[in-house]
Design goal:
seven-stranded mixed β-sheet; alpha/beta; single chain; Rossmann fold
Length: 311
Amino acid sequence: MTNISQRDAFWNRVYEMAVRDRDIVVVTADMGAPSLDRFKKDIPAQFVNVGIAEQNGIQIAAGLCLSGKKAFVYAIAPFVTLRCLEQIRISCAVMGIPIVIVGVGAGFGYEDSGPTHHLTEDIAILRSMPRLTVHNMTDSTMAAAFGEIACRAKTPCYVRLDRQVLPPLYAADADFSSGLCALKEGAEAFIVSTGNMTHAAVALAKALEEKKISVGVIDVYTFPIREEAFLEKVRSAKRLVTLEENFLPGGLGSAVCEVLNDHRLPVPVKRLGLPTRKGYCYVYGGREAIWEYYGIDRGTVEKEVVGFLRS
């Protein structure tokens, strides 16, 4: 999984299952990929291209599911989510139809395509819908596993794929049933991260360790947060820092604070993410330039974490 994208890892696993199960159908909104070409070539009856019509794709998938099929809908992440909110709310959350929504290019995955292609609000919006589960992929090993997990899902879910090829953080036999994982233990604090920012959190924790600062990393990849598993990890934590590539209201940091508050666990939290006062980003020059604009680049985050631990 070292040199494979999350997209290809995910669809390769779904393909392996689809060739054995004729009820698995992929609905794509004019999106192609080598891993999807095999569906079109080998099992064309299980592949539907609706064109640039994501809302229609959701409705077709709903009909397929009601007919006994297992339907996946795939498109660029902001278009298969925010463009389709009413369809997702009614056909997924309200009716409980087990569609698998798959979006590629989450966060700033399409970094130089501007704010129309950036996706920084979807976790906040979709995690608020009852009966809808959000899975935010960390690496390609996880993406492959969730290709199979999504096939078995009995409720609607959204699989959030990063466009960038990221190094593996998980072993091939990793168990993803708990919805989160402590990748590193720490004596002074935990950085709680999600998606591609988990890679930044791990790198930062290793750098701080060289400075004799012991910080752990918890990767949250399923929303709603699995509360029992999360509380077990953080109950004895002195401080928490949340790190995300999303606008702060309603995102990972908000979800963490909700769990702590509901269980009366008085742990100080520092939320690091995209401040809404900065608005939408028209900065070009790659993902790291955008991170610097929002203050979630490596240098700024390290200063914030060290300052929080010393305060």
